Amino acid sequence: MSLNKTMIIGRLGQDPDLKGTPNGTQVCNFSVATTESWKDKNGNKQEKTEWHRIVVWGKLAEICGQYLSKGRQVYIEGSLQTRSWEKDGVKRYSTEINAKTVQFLGGAQGGIDQNNNSRQADEDESESFYNSDDIPF
What we know:
Layout: E1 6-12, E2 17-20, E3 26-39, E4 45-57, H1 58-67, E5 73-87, E6 90-105, E7 111-113, E8 128-130
Parallel strand pairs: 4-6
Antiparallel strand pairs: 1-3, 1-5, 2-3, 3-4, 5-6, 6-7, 7-8
């Protein structure tokens, strides 16, 4: 048995970058920051921020490119994916979250689930809309 599933809630660090592939598929890239806070042994508040690279494909990518912006809070669900390439003779790696679900938080817009496992917003659309009550935590 195997499972590759990642869920994060954080804020966009920059505006999304929406591009088309040569075959016409849309891809949207952006980064999301998650921050953990705790008190150290002296009672001082400490914080640690992690940055996550997010990749979204297809119609969901178009919607993210249209409605997301720097600072917007989102819930992302997807799988981890590591890519490698060579630049100037040095092998480089990047680990990304390949998003299947993107839920827009803190605003009037709802979220979109590429897997269509929630109530359907429109019979002609393949994506579904969630509200904040649908998050499993």
